[in-house]
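Comment thread on ticket #2218

A.B. wrote:
> Attaching the input chain for the structure job we discussed in standup.
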Amino acid sequence: MPRHLRVRVAFVVLVVAASVWYLYPPQKAINLGLDLQGGIHLMLGVEADKHVASQTDRAAEDLKGALERKGIGVKRIAREANAAIQVELASPQSWNDALTVVSEFGSFERRDENQAAGRFTLVMSERRVNQLRDDAIRQGLETIRNRVDQFGVAEPTITRQGSQQILIQLPGVQDPARAKALIGKTALLEFKLLDERTSIEQALAGQLPETSEVLYGREVDKQTKVEHKVPYVVLKRTLLTGAELTRAEVQADPNSLGNWQVAIEFTSTGTRIFGEVTEQNVGKRLAIILDGTVYSAPRINERIPGGRAVITGQFTVDDARDLAIVLRAGALPAPVVILEERTVGPSLGADSIRQGLIAITASAVVVFIFMLAYYRLSGLIADVALGLNLLILFACMAAIRATLTLPGLAGIALTVGMAVDTNILIFERIREELRVGKTPRSAVEAGFRRALRTIVDTHLTVMGTAVILLSFGTSSVKGFGVSLFIGLGASLFTAYFFTRLLFDLVYMGRRKVEAISI
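C.D. wrote:
> Ran it. Output below, let me know if you need it in another format.
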């Protein structure tokens, strides 16, 4: 065997060995999409206006602090609607000084001014409102993606849909309740002081100061296992949030057998703030609040300098683990609501796989028989090349961890047809060369050479279409694009390089070739 043939044979053997390596074991090598292995499909709506409202609240708090630092008394400052702040000064004489402070808040415009009464309204600019809404979607998308990654779902689909929606597909997840709780939890962690001057009875009777609010915790009776709500009077001012967390780990609760807790640790900035808060409020109770629910309210006995704390709440190990995940991933900037929910059972996925494989196998068998009957030995060569094409296709999908979907199976079926069409194009070129009287060697050489440009043009054109599907399509369309792109790339290799190698091994190795079985 000539040296150039040995090199080509060795290369093909290497490709086959690598393909087998990536496909072993086959049941674990290729990720299956939601439509093939079952799972959860969710369409979430992001309440972006609530993010705008929260940012307006923060701006109102910042404005109040800035005015007070300048010695300007404020009678009333409160958010109006989602993006406006009403300000009433204690003294109209401080009007000009107040406007100087307000000018630093460039995202707001003054409206409804009444200098004599010391009142005005700040309205957030439309540009800033739109930016905050967009930020809520983008940050929510990244936060949910981080949570799902830590949850351990292989090849999830998490994409933005429209202006304020997020599409989530979690293949293989069969516990919808836990997945929804993990994804939809806002996870806003806050530390606030209890208002120990106002009793629960006064608060529930409506005698609640403007600076305080009533929040609830939950307790489970150890004997009856009945859960009931416990009210707390909490100061509205947030001292520290979960934005300053660096660590959240699950631990066994040493004070309650069978329960679990979450240990948290702050950044250097959070550690400093936490140290100052605990030092300035020794003897007071500090409420640890998650999404408006009080999980614990321990008393501060001394300054805590290390920036470490624990969240207790009679958690199971799954509860504690999911809480740690959402705390590590960060809080959603705005609440989300489930607009659409579908759960695909694994049996339906198995039926899809079986039907898809039947379709691919049936088409391959029909093609195999046709090529063998019509082109004889050359048809057998094309059939062997087709088998290698499918092997390389599945191996490449396994290597890049691509997800095989039901439309992806359709892409594979289309690849089978195009791979065979490529061989037919080459064989008909060879037949044309034989008809004009060329020798078998010359006909093979000319047939492959003249078909090459057409083969490359058609494959690159369709591969370009596949790239567009991958770039702009939805998850199902992307599955079709992935299998089509990889299959066409494999087809270029097998139909031209591998088929030509087999022709050289079967015919060109002989000293005299009188005829070709084509």
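A.B. wrote:
> Thanks. Noting for the ticket: Residues 358 and 364 are 10 Å apart (CA to CA).
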